[in-house]
Amino acid sequence: MTRPLVVACGALVAELRAVLGQLGSPEDVEVVYLPASLHNRPDRIVPAVEQALAGAADRPVFVAYADCGTGGALDRFLDAHPGVDRLPGAHCYEFFAGAGAFAALHEQEPGTFYLTDFLAKHFVALVWQGLGLHRHPELRDTYFANYRRVVLLSQTGGEEILRAGRAAAATLGLSFQYVRTGFGPFGDAVRVGLRRQENHD
Length: 201
What we know:
By secondary structure, the chain is of the alpha/beta class. Helices cover about 45% and strands about 15% of the residues. It has ten helices and seven strands. The chain has helices at about 15-25, 45-55, 75-80, 90-95, 100-110, 115-120, 125-130, 140-145, 160-170, 185-200; strands at about 5-10, 30-35, 60-65, 85, 110-115, 150-155, 175-180. It has a four-stranded parallel β-sheet, sandwiched between helices.
């Protein structure tokens, strides 16, 4: 059987490796990780995925991205590649928490800034510096005026991650809530996606 190709967001390295490890044979899957910084420029996600898929016409492929801010452009691209699936939902918060749980969190407080383990660990680089707040910290209250809390959707639940999430919330001047998601919905989606690719092979 041809080895499946997974084209994945670089923010999912630890989680995807953990899930592939649970499947027992991570070496049976080739993974190409695209830069996590693409989330700051979602218009570049589809071209990057397209480049990663170049030359993979005869291989089973799974795309480890949700819509991730592409406004449906990723789905339109994948429509031209029958049999290539992606992760479900609009973003990583939804596929980590599960659609129902995420919807409940959003209904409870629409003004929520979400973090995953990856974003909590890299909050300074991706959020604080990414928004230029290290140069203009006075803009914090303007950028986050409509937010009331930070919710850490944690895959591992480690103390280091919890401290990073609390620190991010304190930096933004917001309340903090911790939700342990594990790999559940994400892991299920990866397993189902790879199984479909095997069937397409």
